[in-house]
Amino acid sequence: MELELPKRLYAEGLKPQVKKINNCCRMELIRDLKKAMSAEYNDVKIDPVFKHIMAIADNKLGFSGKLVDSFLGKQLITSKMHEKWFVFARMPLQFSLQEYHAVTGLKVSRESSSDVVTWKNDGGFWSNLLRSGDKITLKSIRKVHLKEVHKWTRIDRMRLIYLCVIMGVVMGRDEKVNIPYMYIKLVMDLDKLQKFHWSLHSYDFLLSSIEKARKKLGKKDSYIFEGFSYALQIWIMEAIPDFGEICGRHVSCSFIGPRCGNWKGVANVSYEDIIELEDSLTKKGDLFSVISVTGNGDMFQHVDYTRKGEMEDERVDLLQDRIRQKFDWSST
């Protein structure tokens, strides 16, 4: 039997459009923290663990719900559990932990010393919250606690900033969801916070969010999208440079580091713009099926990005072989 390529989730041009994506990745919250606690914000910002993530807020890159939504409908159906494949202008595009790390720069490898077991009671706000078993959300932080932080210790204010970056951006959780105690315990110990595998942890959550959103496509005019949505958008802007030009511009032509820190702009793009660009790129245009820290288009797959228990799929193997051979996808 002749090996087939993966099928599209939707046939070309048939993906339903929505009025709105309720994006849970909240850059405005990060900017509010900067206004309320500028000294502590600057201290957290120089910490390499989230330095490039916070740069997205500082650079004021806008979010395009239409761009992200359009790509959710451009998925290819595969058996892979830990990566997604999309298609644009008939070109297959891989979104794996490799691409996610190239965009975010977050730590991938898991260390046993980063496991959260204990926390030290220092009598501050977060210690008292853990000890009492009280709940806290991003919404309550924004509406209540930001008005009271001047009464807190400096280290507790820094912990608040770390928590908001984690819940509001890296994990992109709904603001009404209780912040897990695990995250609070992590910010109580900055050494463990820095050793934690944020890339692996947040990437898996983003994949689950993509899958949840996929099941809602065509059923509602809007939906909630959790996860690090900006990472998905920036990957699209990197994989398809024409979208980078439409949605923003580079901060620096000589930028070195995770891609998320090198974009700014309003990200204003319509469904009509997306369709028009896809039609034009089938004739001529640059797209990158794979992205890594070594450069766009590289097929380098480091052992750090391999996942135990991943499903084999010969259709994906065929895609990768054709990508290596620089196959002409316009003929498919």
How do you describe this structure in short?
Helices cover 44% and strands 9% of the residues. It is mainly alpha-helical and 332 residues long.
Description:
With 332 residues, the chain is mainly alpha-helical. Helix content is 44%, strand content 9%. It has helices at 27-36, 38-45, 51-59, 65-72, 97-104, 125-132, 138-143, 154-170, 181-187, 190-195, 198-216, 229-239, 241-247, 271-281, 314-324; strands spanning 7-8, 20-23, 76-77, 84-88, 91-95, 222-225, 249-250, 263-264, 291-292, 295-296. The strands form five sheets. The chain has a two-stranded antiparallel ribbon with strand order 1-3. The protein has a two-stranded parallel ribbon with strand order 2-6. A two-stranded antiparallel sheet has the order 4-5. The protein starts with 6 loop residues before the first strand and ends in an 8-residue tail after the last helix. The relative contact order is 0.20.
Count of β-strands: 10
Low-confidence stretches: none
Helix content: 40-55%
- H/E order of the elements? EEHHHHEEEHHHHHHHEHHEEHEEH
Compute the separation of the termini in Å. 19 Å
Based on secondary structure, the structural category is mainly alpha
Percent of residues in beta strands? 5-15%
Radius of gyration: 21 Å
Molecular shape: globular
Major beta sheet summary: 2 strands, antiparallel
Number of domains: 2
* Order of strands, widest sheet: 1-3
The number of distinct helices, counting runs of at least 4 residues, comes to 15
Estimate the mean pLDDT confidence: 90
